[in-house]
Design a protein that fits this description.
Layout: E1 2-4, E2 19-21, H1 28-37, E3 42-43, H2 54-58, E4 62-74, H3 85-96, H4 100-106, E5 112-114, H5 142-151, E6 160-165, H6 171-186, E7 192-197, H7 200-208, E8 216-221, H8 227-235, H9 249-260, H10 264-281, E9 284-296, E10 300-301, E11 317-318
Parallel strand pairs: 6-7
Antiparallel strand pairs: 1-2, 3-9, 4-8, 4-9, 5-9, 10-11
Helix pairs in contact: 3-5, 8-9, 9-10
GO biological process, one term: peptide transport
Organism: Streptomyces violaceusniger
Pfam families: SBP_bac_5
């Protein structure tokens, strides 16, 4: 897509460059290679495999900052093998079997932060972020993890798969790491295995068709910086992005009350109460908060990411 600046634009934030050519890559490593070769000026996603080298490659032309993005493992609550009160123990146990601190450091070189709620630290100022809400369920505890999974009836069929789209985001690396963590805790090398789907389009079709048979990768990038946007679209009954089809009347009631509140403080408190139900039932496992990452060429200056991890293209200077 080729975008060009319009000289007649009447607003105060006129573009500082003549235009932007946007390129779509099916492999973020190829994009990074093109940046190094001088064939690309800006990448808005540094692949996990390059994070060890990016600071030496780019120096101060590498950006890493918090963004309104969270990564989760969502369960297909429409599948009886994963739904029900007893299975909540299994879901909680799986969460406790994931060594988030080790994965975020080794795989992502500290560009992710272990999640302890279902929102994002960028909501701290607005009051929606609740650090620690997930409690023990988001703490690595092999002994309790094994006990909970056993108490909940064990993994369905003794084995689980984590489905992910293989075409973007370096997902294979961290999914394999999560499975390795679970397998180590359960002392079974075959307890968990990654299940790649070739393209994001096919992946979305499987989610829409309720064809997931185990936990699957789910990421959320906020549309606007409010706690409502992290909860209602993903966990309200019948919501547009509720891909796990979680449904709870108490959660829905609290969301409705929060939306009807006459003051922001009351609304935020209502959404916080609703989020506590997620902590009880674990329809999705919070994994980590994602930082926005970008790298740019020597031709550019004044490159910045907004709170959505999107480059502010109009402010970039060329030359």
């Amino acid at each position: 897509m080729k975008l060009r600046a319009w000289d007649g634009y009447p607003g105060p934030d006129k573009a500082r460059n003549k235009g932007v050519d946007l390129r779509v890559y099916t492999d973020s490593n190829t994009a990074y290679t093109d940046l190094q070769a001088g064939n690309l000026d800006l990448v808005d996603d540094v692949p996990a495999q390059q994070l060890k080298f990016v600071r030496s490659d780019l120096g101060n032309r590498y950006i890493n900052q918090p963004a309104g993005i969270i990564q989760t493992l969502t369960f297909p609550m429409y599948d009886r093998a994963w739904s029900g009160p007893a299975r909540a123990k299994v879901r909680r146990g799986i969460s406790m079997a994931i060594n988030r601190a080790q994965i975020t450091e080794r795989i992502f070189q500290g560009t992710r932060t272990p999640a302890t709620d279902w929102t994002s630290p960028v909501l701290r100022r607005q009051g929606g972020y609740q650090p620690g809400l997930c409690g023990d369920a988001c703490r690595y505890d092999p002994v309790r993890a094994r006990k909970l999974i056993k108490a909940g009836g064990g993994l369905p069929g003794g084995r689980m798969t984590i489905t992910y789209n293989a075409d973007t985001g370096s997902h294979k690396d961290w999914v394999d790491a999560v499975c390795n963590s679970v397998n180590t805790v359960l002392r079974n090398d075959r307890a968990c295995v990654g299940k790649p789907v070739g393209t994001f389009a096919d992946y979305r079709n499987k989610m829409a068709g309720k064809k997931m048979t185990g936990p699957f990768r789910a990421g959320w990038q906020m549309d606007y910086p409010l706690i409502q946007n992290f909860l209602q679209p993903l966990y309200y009954t019948g919501a547009s992005s509720n891909d796990g089809h979680f449904s709870d009347t108490g959660f829905d009631r609290l969301v409705n009350q929060a939306n009807a509140a006459s003051a922001d403080v009351r609304a935020i408190a209502g959404f916080r109460d609703a989020e506590k139900i997620l902590a009880e039932q674990m329809p999705a496992i919070p994994l980590w908060y994602q930082n926005g990452s970008a790298g740019y060429s020597r031709r550019l200056s004044e490159v910045a990411l907004n709170q959505f991890s999107v480059p502010v293209y109009s402010q970039i200077r060329v030359g």
